[in-house]
Write a structure and sequence with these properties.
Number of domains: 3
Largest sheet: 5 strands, mixed
CATH class of the largest domain: Mainly Beta
Helix content: 40-55%
Distance between the termini: 86 Å
């Protein structure tokens, strides 16, 4: 008996310590959903709280009656259980009451579902395309677009044997090189799709997430009422680098937004103009290194050694040291049946020329080959 009591004592003490430790560890964590920064997210939050309160009321009533019945009709009081097999009133009540509760819950839920799908009368439209493993944003009205990838600092720190402490990187794995910028106070329609596998575009502050499915377009909308930076991630397991597809959305004033649009359109025109001139080897190497660190480093690594058993090395490979035409074809069209993706639709002529030139002259390859953007243009 003493042993049993001591055993229960220590078990109880350990349980209390565990619960205390868990409470301390989670002290900084929120206990509920966030309200978000859009009317839609607040509507979803209100629906969540409404259903929560209804569930709490049901729990109080059900458990209250149950505990009252257990205490009031316990055997020690000499109560004898009634014997009956049919009660019309009880059966009508336990059918009608839950039905009424479900109807009361369905009314606000249906209103929210209708509101979620109300994408009409938008002030602007952004098409979002998921790639392995980055996002492409296309501003339909302004007719320009760009890729958004994991920030170079985070990308470098996450590489094998990088020697970089991730704790020293601000917003590690949650920062991008090109954030998507939107104006506050305008209704924005988001059209999500994918170019390869299923992705999912998710920014919690907006109150929703949408799957990006190849061959389909899903629509969502948001009116962001507060300026700020809102972060999210791909919420669908889309491959080995799924964890490195962050989303950064910046909501700014209308004036700041239109200034940014002007800058982006100038950059787009400069990129297009750059395809019409000849680049020096040094220019291509400098730009090619940036393109490689954004689009290629995840698989082929910083030193071009690849990942044994998964991705082939580029150092001294038949592709980077063989005919230039084969190298261009591989980068633009990919290699069917392998993990080598096609980058012809993802990169501009300048980017393709630069990264191919870089790969043929980096890590000791030193072929001296220079691929001009005009060569890529002629192949297209």
């Amino acid at each position: 008996m003493l042993y049993r009591n001591m055993k229960h004592f220590w078990s109880g003490l350990l349980s209390l310590l565990f619960l205390f430790g868990a409470t301390v560890a989670r002290a900084e964590y929120g206990l509920n959903m966030t309200e978000g920064v859009t009317p839609l997210s607040r509507n979803i939050y209100d629906l969540h709280m409404t259903i929560f309160y209804i569930c709490c009321a049901i729990a109080v009533v059900v458990f209250g009656v149950m505990f009252w019945s257990i205490i009031r009709h316990r055997k020690s009081r000499g109560v004898v259980a009634a014997q009956f097999h049919h009660n019309t009133t009880a059966e009508v009540l336990w059918t009608a009451v839950p039905m009424l509760i479900l109807i009361l819950m369905a009314i606000p839920a249906t209103k929210s579902l209708i509101l979620i799908e109300s994408t009409g009368d938008a002030d602007m439209t952004i098409k979002i395309t998921g790639y392995q493993w980055r996002w492409h944003y296309e501003y339909i009205e302004e007719e320009f677009g760009f890729f958004s990838s994991l920030a170079p600092e985070s990308n470098a720190a996450r590489q094998l044997k990088s020697g970089i402490d991730p704790n020293e990187i601000e917003n590690y794995l949650l920062e991008v090189d090109n954030p998507v910028v939107v104006p506050v106070g305008q209704k924005i329609r988001f059209m999500t799709t994918a170019a390869d596998v299923i992705h999912s575009w998710w920014v919690p502050a907006l109150g929703w997430k949408r799957d990006s499915i190849p061959g389909f377009i899903n629509e969502s909308w948001a009116i962001i009422e507060e300026e700020g930076t809102y972060r999210g991630q791909c919420a669908e397991l889309c491959g080995r680098d799924h964890a490195f597809m962050p989303i950064v959305l910046k909501a700014v004033s209308e004036d700041e937004y239109y200034d940014w649009v002007g800058e982006m359109m100038v950059l787009t025109m400069d990129a297009e103009a750059g395809a019409d001139r000849d680049w020096t080897l040094d220019e291509l190497l400098e730009k090619g290194e940036k393109v490689y660190s954004t689009f290629c480093v995840a698989c082929h690594q910083v030193d071009g050694q690849g990942i044994p058993g998964a991705f082939k090395p580029l150092v001294g490979s038949p592709i980077t040291t063989g005919p230039v035409e084969d190298h261009i074809s591989t980068v633009m069209n990919g290699v069917p049946g392998t993990a080598m993706a096609a980058f012809g639709s993802q990169l501009t002529d300048v980017d393709l020329a630069a990264v191919i030139t870089y790969e043929r002259n980096a890590w000791g390859n030193k072929s001296g080959d220079v691929v001009q953007p005009s060569a890529i243009t002629s192949i297209r």
